[in-house]
Design brief:
Blueprint: E1 3-10, H1 16-25, E2 36-42, E3 50-57, H2 60-75, E4 92-99
Antiparallel strand pairs: 1-3, 1-4, 2-3
């Protein structure tokens, strides 16, 4: 079965809009990657300042291939040469990895 990668980003309230805009500007950078299955950016509702970046992959190798190629490019600064790289919106990041051992989807019909 698939693997799930969850990047836990600590984002101060004043940086939330910045983070969401940056993800929106990169929309589609992972979608056509070999082995990619799903993406979600989850905004905290209450009790935490952690965003969750959820991605699902066919295999660990597919994730690693994306990280060493397109993943690095997606995280580079797109600003013009000579300009200053923008300050990160997140103050901390932790990557969690899970094997999918069970799954369910709504029944069709």
């Amino acid at each position: 079965m698939s693997i799930v990668k969850i990047n836990v980003l600590t984002v101060p309230e004043e940086q939330r809009e910045t983070l969401e805009k940056r993800f929106a500007s990169r929309a589609g950078t992972v979608d056509s990657s070999d082995g990619f299955e799903w993406f979600e950016l989850l905004r905290p509702v209450e009790g935490t300042d952690s965003y969750l970046v959820y991605t699902r992959w066919r295999a660990e190798e597919d994730f690693q291939n994306w990280m060493s190629g397109r993943g690095q490019a997606a995280h580079r600064d797109n600003a013009a040469a000579g300009s200053e790289r923008p300050k990160p919106a997140a103050t901390d990041s932790t990557l969690w990895t899970f094997d999918v051992v069970q799954q369910a989807a709504p029944k069709q019909g």
